[in-house]
Write a structure and sequence with these properties.
alpha/beta, 8 strands, globular
């Protein structure tokens, strides 16, 4: 693990392997680049670079840019002229997608694991409305700890807040502001918002992965993306939203076919 200046900001970087396909990975909110270690161990011979999201791990937050733009700029600097396989989970899926759209000629393939793209669901979509109702506990939280608890119980690994190690609870509480900082990209319609047509316009292969026991909104997003590609998402049995962490062997089996 080391820290590099990427895209103009100090960024935590984890590197693994020195032979095989070249991978660039971006993790989910409240995690860090080390979350990819089990998956990389299952994949075997690869040259992997995993980046900490802004404000996560060893990465600083650049207040002049949103976290999606900052994260994508870091990916683009590592990507260079390519080729590389981009893999992103949850908010990290947004980051690698943005990078792929910015420099498609350098991308060998794109893997989106339950990308956090709530804006793809219409405002009156029952699935989105249910998600917004479930987020009330987070929205109405009076303290950062309460907000972190509500968010992690919805989008974490399924464990009750009290069952998480104290260090993990503290880490999430310190970074809960990231959820609000990224809300406009995830939920809104800012200039240059990514669309299904943008994804379908990519020349590289696109793989979509979801857990069978994930939240309805995450599954619906994956189905919409895959459907626009005339495909279906790869569904991992028994997995929730944290599928690349909880089921690394199953995700690796899907990726091997793509990495070829």
């Amino acid at each position: 693990m080391r820290t590099l200046t990427l895209g103009g900001a100090e960024t935590g970087v984890m590197e693994a392997g020195d032979s095989g396909p070249r991978l660039i990975l971006s993790h989910c909110t409240m995690a860090h680049s080390g979350a990819w270690k089990p998956l990389l161990a299952e994949l075997g011979a690869v040259q992997a670079t995993a980046l900490d999201l802004p404000g996560h791990g060893a990465s600083e937050m650049d207040a002049t840019r949103g976290p999606q733009r900052q994260g994508a700029d870091a990916v683009l600097e590592v990507l260079g002229e390519g080729p590389a396989h981009l893999i992103g989970h949850s908010f990290g899926g947004r980051v690698v997608l943005r990078a792929a759209l910015d420099r498609p000629e350098a991308v060998a393939s794109l893997t989106l694991i339950e990308p956090m793209m709530m804006h793809l669901l219409a405002e009156d979509d029952p699935v989105r409305l249910a998600e917004e109702r479930d987020m009330q506990a987070y929205a109405e939280a009076e303290t950062e700890a309460e907000a972190a608890r509500a968010f992690m119980e919805m989008w974490g690994g399924g464990q009750p807040w009290e069952a998480l190690p104290e260090r993990q609870r503290a880490y999430a509480t310190e970074r809960i502001g990231f959820v609000a900082d990224s809300a406009e990209d995830v939920m809104g319609d800012p200039p240059g918002q990514m669309t299904l047509d943008d994804i379908a316009g990519l020349d590289c292969p696109v793989t979509v992965i979801a857990g069978a026991r994930t939240r309805a909104s995450a599954l619906s997003i994956c189905e919409r993306i895959a459907g626009r590609l005339s495909d279906r998402p790869h569904i991992v049995a028994g997995a929730g939203h944290m599928v690349p962490i909880s089921h690394p062997a199953e995700v690796a089996a899907i990726l091997r076919e793509r990495l070829g």
